[in-house]
Amino acid sequence: MANVVSPVVESLTGHIKKHLGYAICSTRHVKNMEKRKKVLENRCADVKKLMERNIINGKEIPTGVDDWLNDVEDLKKKVQSIPGDRIGCLNMFMRYQDGRKACEYTEEIEELITTNSGFNWSNARIPTGRVNSQPTSSTTSMPSPVGYVFKSRDKPFNDALKFLQQDNTKSQVIALCGMGGIGKTTMMEQLKVDKNVTKLFDYIVKVVIGRDPNMQNIQNDIALYLGGEGLLEATQTFRADNLCTKFKTILEKGKKKILVILDDVWEKVNLQDIGLTSPLPEGVKLLLTSRNSNICKQIAADARSTFQEVIIDVLEEAEAKKFFFEITEVLEDDHDKYLTGCNIVKKCGCLPLAIKLIASTLKSQEDYVWSDTLNRLNNNDLDDNVKEIVKISYEYIKDENKEIFLLCGLFPEDANIPIEDLMRYAWGLKLFKKVPTLKEARQRTYTCVSKLINANLLISSDHVRCVKLHDIVLAFVLGEVSKEYYACLINHGDVSKWDEDEIGESCKKISLTCRGLKHFPRHFKYPNLSLLQLMHGDESLKFSENFYENMENLEVIAYYEMSYPLLPRSLKCSTNLKALCLHSCKLMFNECSFIGDLVNLEVLSFAHCAIRKLPATIANLKKLKLLDLTGCVDLHIDDGVFNNLERLEELYMRVSEGEGVRFTNANIEELRMLSSQLCALEVEFVEKNTWPENFSFEKLDKFKISIGCQLEEYEYTEKYSYEKTLKLVTECSSQLEACKINEMLRKTEHLHLQVNDMIGLEDISISPYGQRSCCSLIELEICNCVNLIYLFPMSVARSLKKLERLTVLSCSVLKVLVQDDGREINSAGEMIKFEKLKFLSLKKLPKLEILFNIEDVVELPQLVRLEVEGLPNFTSIYPDKNNSCALLNSQVRIPELEELSIKSMENLKQIWDDNNNISTLRKIWVQECDSLVNLFPSNPMRLLDHLERVWVSNCRSIEVIFNIDLECVGQVELVTNNSLRSIYVISSDTVREVWRIKGGENNYSSKLTCAFEALKWIDIFNCKRFRNIFTPTNTNCKIDMPALTNMRILYPETGNRQEEEVWSREERDDSTSIVAFPSNLIHSFHNLQELSTGIYHGVDAMFEIESSLAGGRELVTTTNNQQPLLPNLQYLELQYMDSISHVWKCSNWKKILILQKQFSFQNLTTIFILGCKRIKYLFSPLMAKLLLNLKKIDIVFCEGMEEVVSRREYKDEAMTTTNKTTTFFPHLHSLSFKGLTNLKRIGGGVSAKSSTGITTHDQFEVFFYMLLCLRGCLVLRFQNKLFVFKIDFVFSKRFEKACRFMLFQNCILEADNHFFIQSLF
């Protein structure tokens, strides 16, 4: 028992002694705590000194120092809570508390002192690449990028940011590419400090590669970013190994992520030299900036990593001007400088760096300096700094590329330069070595062009197979290279200022636009000339008879749109002339027989020259390799022409419009014999007796051939950019067998078929190639095949690996696109994938039942546009839970659909339901779908992530565009991108609202604000029943559209007003007042700039400026912190609103003026009112005071209008006495009235007689008189009549004698029954 009790007693005794000690020895405990606290404070001061020193010197701070300092500060606050004046206090309880706390705090102090002793302060430098490497106590932060914010940069910036955030399987190497001075490095700097990037990466390593990279410095910089210390290794290889080790250590042990940025890349970088392996490690992303995208692709290929390119283009013109004038600090009011500056910006081609350089030199300069700068730019005299932007890129390209680049400089500014023309010029000038055929020359030309585009010296054009030159690049070519090195004379401006001695006889190339030129200089002699290009000469231009004399070295002649140009006939010219290219030229008498004398010609083009006959003398051109007769309508070819063209490789005879080539039997036979040697052929065999039989098409690798029809004109359309096109129209597929078209099907890219007896595509694919007979197809068009039941068997469908566009139109019995024909026994369960299909159009297929009549899953991974029209068997586009007849059933997968067009689907009940997730959709068009009730499901959120445009037309069952039930909106369905920009609703009679919102008690209405906050344009046109933009059923539900700038609600005046009035009477309750923009809605459109409404029936007023609330009327502005109403509205248009009596409805305008710090409608500049019969006046006096910027008022055919400004309903807010002048509309310069039969006055007032006996009016009218007179127009009211005069500055003597008065007295004289007023100018 004692053994048990004794330890317990000892334990209790010790515990009691301890607590008694807190009270008895409290003074000692507190003093000891204070003593140890001073030690801790000294340690803390030392730590702060060490910390400050390391921060200044960029050295590492030991881990835990920040937390230790915070703990010290917290403990000091605790210690201070023990008052020192209680020492010696007789209150035992307080002594006990103080002693106990002092002991506890002393222990904590000792722990902190011990922890401090463990800090290891080294001289290791901070890795500069480590994100958030600076300690929290430091006042330094990452530098913000210097530059301006450009809206056009948003997309490439966001694209780059998206690629950085993506998984490495989608993007691991990202390149920012663009021409010099475009802003690549600026965007890289902005990305580097973006919070989304700094959160994503632990280290950001940025090094500049440059034109002459110093690998030792680059390696050392990377080491500093990763470890804070430089490299000591002597060789490049050892340094690379060290870096590789550093990367592995950070990635593997620390599980960190690293962004490596290589800026200004000119040549391929060996990634092993900078410590990176191939493939790139998992935690690494590589961001490149370069002028040459091809170099970036090579780096990504070496890294064996996924590659994404972001192209940065020039600025939009508006933001380029803003950028320029922000730098120069010139305002639009300085008209001369502003106009000159706009032209300078245009000559800079909206290139940011060029604008910045030039603008900086022009800041605070005189007008003549600006004009001189513009003149220099017009003369291609670039500033040295601007010149350097292009020069360093030019110096990096090789000789052949330079030659092609300089040929591009022969064309006018902003010209679309055909690559085919460059090839023909290059062939005639013999620029390519060891290139024996035109095919190889074309390939070489396209290769050069591709390299120049990748180097950003050329720009891709909107026209197919064309390129363009940036203005600054063209100026560099014309101003520097062409004159200094290549002796070119190029003038596409004012040829009247052409200095023929500018180059002299050394000139090798001439390119002139001859518009306005009457004759060439008398001494037009250039013996070294190798290329002559003339453009746009009219019939008045005269050539001298000896024009080509002394041009024996001429190799290329190219004439564009020249009327009756003189063509070479001399034997001297025939010696070296290799290429004669005429395009859209008028030839004298359509005579070209003398061309046969130019026996050394290898390229001859009469494209669109309207020659009617190809003479037999052309057969003399035995060296001819290319003959272009494109667009020569109703052409007759002499027999025997083709027989002697032994070296002909390419023949172009496509007409497209008008009568085609009139082939004779002899022509066809000669063409058949020639076909075996041709590599390129464009021809139309329209008449059945001219169809090609037994032709050999084996060598053809470039062709556009039609049989039974003409080819369409698609020269500049991207859709038809294919070089291998076949168009077949026939009654019977067997008729095509003799034409041997199967030889071409295997290599055809664009195939158009209209074969009446074809049941399936394989009916015309009878060839030894089997299922691969259509393997090269990129576009397939099937039209008017009346017996076609199915399009592809599965075997053919699987072979269409390259198919990008598929159109099926007007096939009356087609039931299915892909049919399981039972031939593929071992392929059950395999997915069918149309890997590259981007466009699918299905129109007027009344029997179509299903797209894919197979059990396998069908995937269209790249389909972005789907068009459907006239498919009556489908009630839904996407499947729903009721398993309705859906076009895209559950087996069809389309993950990337962006554009959906639906038209004339008579039985379509719905497009999708709440369970469909089509978040990639950007645009939707719905037309003539009379059974469709709901455009969107009740929960449209998952459709709105990327939706940009909604277009609804001629749909007679839709009442609401967005019929949203907030109770269906889930908690996680947030809209993140806010992409919707425009809504168009046209000729849809049943549409009443754009938004109808139900529910809202769950506070999901904030999601609606996010979903529509980017909307800019709403257009409601010809919708008879339309009533409201937005109808909430719950007062808590709000919708905000801060970006909305344009709204149009119009119905055209058709003359059938009886039907319109019936619609209006049926739906209007006469006891209620309808306002188009009620007070609870008007603040949703804060940034609205243009508003047009018309035939908006039942509306009494446009804008309600107050709301009826319980307890009285409260102004809307007071509920929104006195925010002005529609402060950005600039244009207001009202048309044929028969019921409207007020534009602005408010009971207390004076209170509005008092409450608002900014005026409502303060930016309204234009008002146009047409056919609003019930409006008696436009403004109250106080409303007129709000419209400070109003410039133009047009009021037309408003029979009820009596006054423009009236105080009739605002007696209590009458203006001040007429003796005091009140200024209204200080910027008004146009006031137009027409058809106002009841107009009595502009402003209501009381007339008075002056001492002179002449009628004067109140000051409001006086203001109008003076203002309009100063603007050159006068509006007067006299004897209850309105008179409008145009003031001239030159008056007849009779008029001057009749008019003797002062303007400010508003005197009116009557002369010859007309009223006049004399100007004081």
From TrEMBL:
Belongs to the disease resistance NB-LRR family. This is Putative NB-ARC. GO terms for biological process: defense response. Keywords: ATP-binding, Leucine-rich repeat, Nucleotide-binding, Plant defense, Repeat. One of its GO terms (molecular function) is ADP binding. Residues 761-880, 897-1034, 1075-1199 form the Disease resistance protein At4g27190-like leucine-rich repeats domain. Coiled coil: none annotated. Residues 133-145 have a biased composition (Low complexity). Gene3D superfamilies: Helical domain of apoptotic protease-activating factors (1.10.8.430), P-loop containing nucleotide triphosphate hydrolases (3.40.50.300), Ribonuclease Inhibitor (3.80.10.10), Winged helix-like DNA-binding domain superfamily/Winged helix DNA-binding domain (1.10.10.10). Residues 126-145 are annotated as: Disordered. InterPro entries: Apaf_helical, At4g27190-like_LRR, LRR_dom_sf, NB-ARC, P-loop_NTPase, Plant_NBS-LRR, WH-like_DNA-bd_sf. It comes from Helianthus annuus (Common sunflower). Residues 156-324 form the NB-ARC domain. It comes from the Eukaryota.
